[in-house]
Recover the amino acids of this structure.
């Protein structure tokens, strides 16, 4: 059964029809529209899209870490069937770390530069789990070993560690309170390719060992194939395609997904010519009517300018494009371009 569909087991996280605006100078700008998805225990889902598509906003909303100028205009987020108070940072506090935690991109910015890393890992253990100082330090040592850092290295300050080691520390901190869901927001983007591969391998191992649900945010589709079961593609604040990773790579249906896949460099040179996607993603102030991708889409039709294509379930996933009808993988109208 495809993982884009509801499974027999209850979802651990459900995002239902979520829309969010950012307010700037009294203008409401549409950052997220009709975001809906489910994630199950142990499942790894990638959230992919170009810069500004709304990936971080989605993650921050799920974690209840909204900017002061953000307003959820509709929808909700449920954890194990219960509605999360995502618009109330204080009320979300008991859920962050314990139920879900976030690993951000820049470990150097997220870590305290004047505190030894082992203490930073121990802190959530005492604050959130009520451990004594000794218990928290023991747990921090265990966590360091879990992410492949010797407990002695925990005495280092962040600047004494490499970028990859600092990101391992961030992962250890995220796991400190036994969350069921970890959101990684571009956790490897700032790292070199080899360290990036090592961190992704570590994340995959931990996810399997701890049966974690993982949301891996990236703008780079090539990191998805080995780390995730499912991929959701975002464009201009909407999910526009969702399905199993292998199926989407094999048979991308949305024109944007197709172009994204074609834009991945192929290591076996000569097989696929690198094709950048023409044009730029629209800004929040300037979203085209109808399908936001229409100004860049090689298959755009008249209807695309007037009607928003909604994400519809079909046999092998979900897709939001007027080329498809619900329940069919065949284009419902021929492209006129
Ligand atoms: N606090 C804010 N106020 C106004 N606009 C914002 C705010 N935060 C983000 N945005 C805008 O919302 C849109 C979505 O931003 P978001 O950070 O979610 O994108 P992203 O997909 O994570 O991009 P990137 O790949 O660059 O990290 C962007 O146009 C961004 O400029
Ligand atoms: S709805 Fe229209 S413009 Fe949008 S991706 Fe499909 S064909 Fe292209
Ligand atoms: Mg982002």
């Amino acid at each position: 059964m495809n993982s884009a569909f509801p499974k027999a087991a209850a979802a651990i996280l459900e995002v239902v029809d979520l829309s969010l605006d950012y307010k700037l100078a009294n203008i409401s700008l549409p950052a997220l529209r009709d975001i809906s998805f489910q994630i199950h225990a142990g499942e790894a889902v990638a959230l992919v899209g170009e810069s500004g598509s709304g990936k971080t906003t989605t993650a921050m909303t799920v974690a209840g870490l909204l900017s002061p100028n953000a307003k959820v205009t509709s929808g909700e987020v449920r954890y194990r069937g219960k509605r999360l108070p995502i618009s109330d940072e204080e009320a979300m506090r008991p859920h962050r770390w314990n139920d879900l935690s976030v690993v951000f991109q820049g470990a150097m910015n997220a870590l305290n530069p004047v505190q030894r890393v082992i203490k930073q890992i121990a802190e959530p253990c005492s604050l959130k789990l009520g451990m004594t100082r000794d218990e928290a330090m023991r747990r921090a040592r265990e966590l360091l070993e879990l992410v492949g850092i010797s407990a002695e290295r925990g005495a280092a300050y962040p600047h004494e560690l490499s970028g990859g080691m600092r990101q391992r520390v961030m992962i250890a901190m995220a796991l400190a309170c036994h969350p069921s869901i970890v959101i990684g927001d571009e956790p490897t983007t700032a790292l070199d390719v080899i360290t990036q591969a090592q961190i992704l391998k570590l994340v995959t191992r931990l996810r399997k060992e701890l049966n974690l649900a993982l949301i891996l945010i990236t703008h780079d589709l090539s990191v998805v194939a080995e780390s995730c079961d499912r991929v959701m593609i975002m464009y201009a604040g909407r999910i526009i395609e969702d399905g199993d990773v292998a199926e989407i790579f094999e048979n991308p249906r949305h024109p944007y997904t197709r172009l994204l896949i074609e834009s991945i460099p192929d290591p076996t040179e000569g097989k696929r010519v690198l094709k950048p996607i023409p044009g730029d993603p629209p800004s929040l102030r300037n979203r085209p009517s109808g399908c936001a991708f229409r100004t860049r889409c090689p298959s755009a039709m008249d209807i695309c300018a007037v009607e928003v294509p909604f994400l519809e379930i079909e046999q092998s996933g979900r897709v939001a494009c007027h080329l498809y009808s619900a329940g069919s993988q065949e284009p419902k109208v021929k492209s006129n371009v």
Notes: Residues 193-210 form the longest helix (18 residues). The chain has ten helices and twelve strands. The radius of gyration is 21 Å.
